[in-house]
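Morning. Coffee machine broken again, so started the prediction first thing and wrote up yesterday's gels while waiting. Chain of 167 residues, entered below exactly as on the submission form.
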Amino acid sequence: MKNKWLWIIVGAMLVANVLCIGTLAWLRIRIARRFTEPCHVHTDGGTNYVVQLLKTTVGRTDNGCVVIVYLGLRNPNLYEVTLKRESFVLMDHEKKYFKPMIPGEIRIPAGGLVEQEAFSFAVPDEALAGMITLEVGQNHFAMVKSSRSFTRQLSKGQFLMFRQPDW
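Came back before lunch.
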């Protein structure tokens, strides 16, 4: 009789653990999908394009912190779209703006896509203390980092990659 109850308790504990792990995995997948959800940008001039946040990398160099944002860009138009890299601006929780370190243009062919485009930004340490967003078009923002403070101490040359906003 005691063995029967022992097996029931052990089985119940295993089922509870599997349910907890399954719920945690489901939540992480849901957060990651929301992070990479496409943003449809419509401009006043009639240019339309789709931006998808793929991943974010944060690291430390000799000059300070660097945030690298990787985007996928899609052009649903019947004509080529040219975007200025300077129009993709990073904004921290204190409303400080950071332009990409590498200027230039991105050309997206008609009906085509750019699978991965990297934008790197030099930011001060205090920018990582709160939410970070990226302006991906006129009045269109994508959340890169949640309001959770980044507490990891990175050594020079160390970079970490994230596919979710909680880092």
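The chain has two domains: 1-35, 38-162. Going to sketch it on the whiteboard this afternoon.
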